[in-house]
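Researcher: Re-running this chain for the archive, since the previous output was lost when a drive failed. Same request as before.
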Amino acid sequence: MKTTLLTALFALVLIYSPNGIAKPVGITTSTLSVEVIHNGKPVVIQRSQDNKNTIASDYALTSRACPPFCIRPIKLAPGIETIGELEMIDYLVAASKPGSDILVIDSRTPDWVAKGTIPGSISIPWTLLKEDTSDPITIAGILSDRFGAIDEDELWNFSKVKTLVMFCNGMWCGQSPRNIMTLLKYGYPADKIKWYRGGMQNWHALGLTTVKGQEK
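Model: Regenerated structure tokens:
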């Protein structure tokens, strides 16, 4: 992971601050920040350096009604890899490289995305891939134009598809899980799908950088 000079200098200032109160907040002991590309521009991902920072109110509720907001399992489906924040950051960095075959997808609806998203992700609302809220042409367009599937006489060839890293609001959110189950139904290879179960709730809980709006 790439540590920016600005973050490194800021950390040194905190370490040697006269009052000794503020402490630097790294991603890991060896990584203070990484740089990704969002909407064509570089964005630095790091944790909030405010030691008193608290989670955003949108993600502070603990007891949304279940159903529908039930706790999702760690293993969503056979072959689907569930990842955490460090793996997510690695995928974001990899997705930002030219010619990358990785897509990090925010599956949430536009109203949630407008509040902030993970830098380096793209927006594909879960409703566009759900059969009863979308249509076959839209779904086929996403599979072919965005994901790299090939339509061969009404049969999908997934041999050259991109790796999809999908997330939504958290371990209680059903938006990315529904998309994943739909993709598996179409035959998308399970080993080409990664699921960030913690989603925005865990991302906020760790004080990681968010951005308003996102690439579509």
